[in-house]
Design goal:
A six-stranded mixed β-sheet has the order 6-7-8-3-9-10, sandwiched between helices. A four-stranded antiparallel β-sheet has the order 2-1-4-5. A four-stranded antiparallel β-sheet has the order 12-13-11-14, covered by helices on one side. It is 35% helix and 26% strand. The protein contains eleven helices and 14 strands. α3 (98-108) packs across α4 and α4 (113-126) runs antiparallel to α5. The longest helix has 16 residues, at 172-187. It has two domains: 9-226, Rossmann fold (3-Layer(aba) Sandwich), CATH 3.40.50.300; 234-300, Alpha-Beta Plaits (2-Layer Sandwich). α6 links the parallel β7 and β8. By secondary structure, it is an alpha/beta fold.
Length: 316
């Protein structure tokens, strides 16, 4: 990531309104060469609207956008040769083969002759699609369809890549392989902006912006966001009787939320609650009902904890 160079994507005070509804509210975005920048938020947070404005598909109501040195508000067409875009849903032709789709897309980008053949071959190889090139695109598994969409977006060797929920609905192994490809592309110097609602996937990004109701409410490296102090204590309970403890904890006044997690319970307390009060509750329940407590300790914060804390701070 080259943070000492000018950003490939820059947005300032970017907004989009649909009538009285504000979908994106004065956001700031900067993505440098070789950087993977993530927009993380729930469905409806404004991520897709933001990415469609950034890549020139939707005009903003207010604000400035510059991509690959081009003013996207005034001259969006000039930048399209430097932009690759992969939509959330498969947008190529299901009744054409993999190879036919790539040849068609290459032609739309103005690639012809040897140049077209070389770029199609290169993307087939990069995306591990060579042995699938004769397969009808509509019959491909979802993970391979996403690879094909990415291959089509890379044919013209863009400087900037926009990925809108690229692994939505894809199985975990296919998601992992897709992210390995993203890292490879970032290492080549491409600036990448990706939207996601997967917390584990967001950790793969170099920097994150958390979106809520059209606004960016927190931004930084994942490690920095994880170090934010949590307003509500969280304890982790390990017990063979976790199901019973989960049921009991729902009625304890100290408890705000009980989250089953990898065979354990993560118990989130109300803000200002002394964790010792919960420990006393658990000890009393264990003694009275002859339940076993294997371990009880402060939970290691996860990105979802930080995200929930930020959302609650902004709601408050």
């Amino acid at each position: 990531m080259k943070t000492d160079t000018a950003p490939l994507i820059r947005a300032e005070d970017l907004s989009r309104r649909f009538g009285e509804f504000t979908a994106v509210d004065r956001i700031q975005v900067a993505v440098h060469p070789g950087e993977v920048f993530g927009l993380l938020g729930a469905n409806g947070a404004g991520k897709t609207t933001a990415i469609r404005m950034l890549c020139g598909m939707l005009p903003p109501t207010d604000g400035r956008i510059e991509v690959a040195g081009v003013d996207m508000v005034r001259h969006a067409r000039r930048a399209r040769g430097q932009i690759g875009y992969v939509a959330q849903r498969f947008s190529l032709y299901g009744d054409l083969t993999v190879l036919e789709n790539l040849k068609l897309q290459a032609g739309l980008y103005g690639l012809t002759g040897v140049r077209r053949r070389d770029r199609v071959d290169a993307t087939l190889h990069l995306l591990n699609l060579t042995d699938r090139q004769a397969v009808m695109a509509g019959t491909l598994p979802l993970g391979y369809q996403q690879r094909l969409g990415l291959a089509a977006a890379l044919l013209h060797e863009p400087q900037v890549l926009f990925l809108d929920e690229p692994t939505s609905g894809v199985d975990p192994m296919a998601r992992q392989r897709f992210w390995e490809l993203i890292y490879t592309l970032a290492d080549s110097g491409i600036g990448i902006l990706v939207t996601t609602h997967y917390m584990d996937e967001a950790l793969f990004c170099d920097r994150l912006a958390l979106m809520q109701a059209g606004r960016i409410v927190a931004e930084g490296e994942p490690e920095t966001l994880l170090r934010r102090p949590l307003p509500t204590p969280i304890l982790e309970l390990d017990s063979p009787d976790a199901v019973i403890f989960e049921r009991l904890a729902q009625d304890w006044p100290e408890v705000r939320e009980v989250i089953p997690h990898a065979g354990q319970l993560r118990i989130r307390l109300h803000a200002g609650t002394d964790p010792a009060a919960l420990r006393a509750r658990i000890d009393q329940a264990a003694t009275a009902r002859r339940l076993t407590v294997t371990a009880l300790h402060p939970a290691t914060p996860e990105l979802e904890d930080a995200f929930v804390a930020v959302l609650e701070e902004n709601d408050g």
